[in-house]
Structure formats: structure tokens, C-alpha cells
Amino acid sequence: MSRLFASVRARATLAATLVVAVALVAAGTAVLLSLRSNLLGEAGTQAERSARDVATSLAVGTRYTELNLDDDDRPVQVVDEAGTVVAASEDLERITGTGVDAVTPQPSASPSDDGDDGDDDDDSGESLEAGEIGEPATVGDGTATVDGDTEDYRFVTVPVETRRGDQLTVYAGAPLSAEHGAVNTALTVMLIGFPLLLAVVAWVTWLVTRRALRPVEGIRREMAAITASEDLARRVPVPGTHDEVARLATTTNQTLAALESSVERQRRFVADASHELRSPIASLRTQLEVAAAHPELLDLDGAVEDTVRLQRLAADLLLLARLDAGERPADARVDLAALAREAAEGRTGVSVRGDAAVNVAGSRGQLGRVLANLLDNAQRHARSAVEVTVRRDGEAAVVAVADDGEGVPAADRERIFERFVRLDAARSRDDGGAGLGLAIARDVAVRHGGTLTVHDAPAGGALFELRLPGERA
Q1: Predicted TM-score (pTM) above 0.70
Q2: Residue range 274-293, pLDDT digits in tens
Q3: Is residue 67 situated within a structural domain?
Q4: 44 shares a domain with 21
Q5: Is 231 exposed, middle or buried (0-12, 13-18, 19+ CB in 10 A)?
Q6: The predicted structure's pLDDT at residue 123
Q7: Closest to 175 (Cα-Cα) out of 154, 146, 148, 199
Q8: Buried b / exposed e across 245-255, counting CB within 10 Å, b at 16+?
Q9: Which domain holds residue 37?
Q10: Does residue 173 sit in the same domain as residue 309?
């Protein structure tokens, strides 16, 4: 059992750790992706700003040689319609990702024919009039080598169109070193911090589950002790947490109480049955031994009476054993009025009145046994008459058996339904029976979903009322 609890703790700890691990991985991935997206967006914004600055200068007529392209962090290319690089950042040695690999400016493919600027000696041979700047677009990521240092960049392109129709394209890049550094730093923190956090989660879960299962272990130890000692009077400890474990302990104690009551009842039943069986068996044996020695002294009627009594007692014990085993009654249709008339037939001083047909669902044999036991008990105590009434009371079927005897004292009205109970201790066993009739009658009534109670009869005797659920439509 300890291994089971350890396994439960291990499974709970593993499950909690896995859940937290999945959550951390998902959250970490989202953070890294968001961080990278934001930094790439920032790099794109910086590249766009650089490209726009150069495009603006070109649009207002700045010569290629006069462009401010000396920012080592942001490599720039200016390309004409023919794909020729007409201007580039100083110290730019190599570039990829823009679609134009050239890094050395070439003379313009379209020399200026406008002499307004008065300067035709420039190597580029061209200056531009104010024109129009197009919408920027992200080219993508690439690399550039500036003054011997190679880094990753995000490149943005901005088209420029002059008034005379010349079209130029400006490529500008922003370094991704900050993005790489931030992402790598965040990833390093996660790789170090996540295992530590998972270790803390596993440790806390292990401690919490041990504390939560400690009362269960106490219940287990007490149950093992009860099993070893067979002492059903012991109870398991109930923790004061008012949670599921406390309810488990309470239910376990209730089960132990019911088991103790059942075992004690079974012990009394076996002891009482042995005692009741001893008398008719001893009487019958005595008569047979006398008859064997003196055949002329054989009391045949007494032997038959003891045998019948022993047979009835065995039948009662067998029925009680079946009821205790939980035997379910049959679901047949039974007319209580007809059954009462059959049970009263041939009995002196017994009258039956009531509705024509009062149907219930149940076992005809067991319900007939209830009526027979009630009539036997009533005739045993009645002075002159027993009246049986069968009627309906709403959805219930009611059978009332009343006698004109002395009745049952209020203090004994529940005790008489216990097994082997006789109120008149001086009454002989032959006259009073074994004290099982009323116990059987109540058990059968309960098995059929009904009740059996005793009250005062109108005539002053006892009124036994059997109440059963009526037959369902």
C-alpha cells in the first residue's frame, strides 16, 4: 500500500511538472517569437528611415558623390533602372540579400543633359531634380561586410522617381545584432531558469501530495490493524480538513459500523438459532430413544409435532438467510385482497373485508408468508376475533390485521420485530413459536419497498399495518 501511495505521489508530481513544463515551453516560445518579431520590426523601421533619408536626398537633386552614406551600421546601395550600382556606403566590401551583389559605384547609365547645376565634372555625371519617393518595401534578411566586419542585416527598399522620369532604387539595411543578442539572452535565461522552476514545482508538488496523502496513510494503517485484530469496534481517524479525505474517513467509519452491526447480528442469529434448534431436536431424540427401548411408550403425535416444528423453524431460518443475502423479490402481480382471503380460509374467528382488488408487484409466496405470520400472531393473542382489512390509501396498498387481545405496549412495539423475541417470557415455546414470524414479516415488507408497523386496534388489541407501494400503471 505504501508503494501505491508513493506511486500516486510520483504520478501527481510528474503530471504537475509536465503541465508546467508544457506551459513554460509554450509561454517561452511565444515570448521569443514576440521579441524577435518586435526587434525585426524595429530593425525594419531603422532600415526604412535610412532608405528614406537617402531617397529624399536623391529626390531634391543631391549628387551621388554628395550623399551621406558613411554610417557603418547601415549599409546602403543606390541602383538605377539598369541594375547598376551608382552609389554605395563607404567601406562596403560585400552584400547579400538585396538582389544586387555589386558594391562599387559605376558611372550613371543616363548622363545628365540638364545643365542647370553648372557642374558636369563629377564622376557620376548626374544630378537629379526634385521628384517623387515611392512606398518602402521589406526585401528580407541578408549579410553585409563593412570594413572587414560581417553581420546580419534587414534590408528595406525605397524607389525614387525624378521629374524627368529617371527611376532609382535605394537599398538600406539595419543590423540584427541587437535582435540576435536579445533573443539569445532570453533563450539562455529560459534554458537556465525553466529547469530550476520545474525542479521547484516538482519539489513543492511532492511535499503537498505527501501532506495530502498523510491522512490516507493513517486510514490505511488503521484498516490494516482492524483486519489483523478483527476488532470491528475500532474506527479510522477522521482529519479535520473537511475535504474528500475527511469524507472518505467518515464513510469508512460508517461502513465499519454497519459491518460491525451486521456481524453482531449474525452472531446473535447463529446463537439464537442454535438455541432454538436444540430444544425440538433434544425432544425428538428423547422420544425416539424411549421408543427404541419401550416401543409401547412411543408418543407418535409428539414426535410428529416436534418434527413439524423443527421443519418450520428450518424453513424460517432459510428464508431469513435468503433475505439477509439480499435476495430480490419477484416482480409478479399480486392481488392482496385475494391473498388475504386465501390466508384466512379455514381459520376460526378471522374475517376479511375491503376493496375488490388491491394489486401490488412482488413475490406472491413471500407476501403470503407475511399475511400468514400476521394471522398466526393475531390468533395467538386474540380473545375471540381477528379482522383483516385490505384497502388503498392513495398510491399505497394497505393490509391491516387487528385483534381484540391485550395489545402491544408502546415500549415494545419495535422490539417485537427483532428475531427470537418473545414478550411473554413465561409462555411455552410450543405455544409461542420461535419468535421469528414478525421479524420475517418486516424483512419481507422492507424488501418489497414497504413498511410494517403496530398500533392500537379499535377493539383494544394490536393493529398490525402492512403498507406497500401500489402496482405501477
Answers
A1: no
A2: 777 777 788 778 878 887 88
A3: yes
A4: yes
A5: exposed
A6: 38
A7: 154
A8: beebbeebbee
A9: 1-229
A10: no
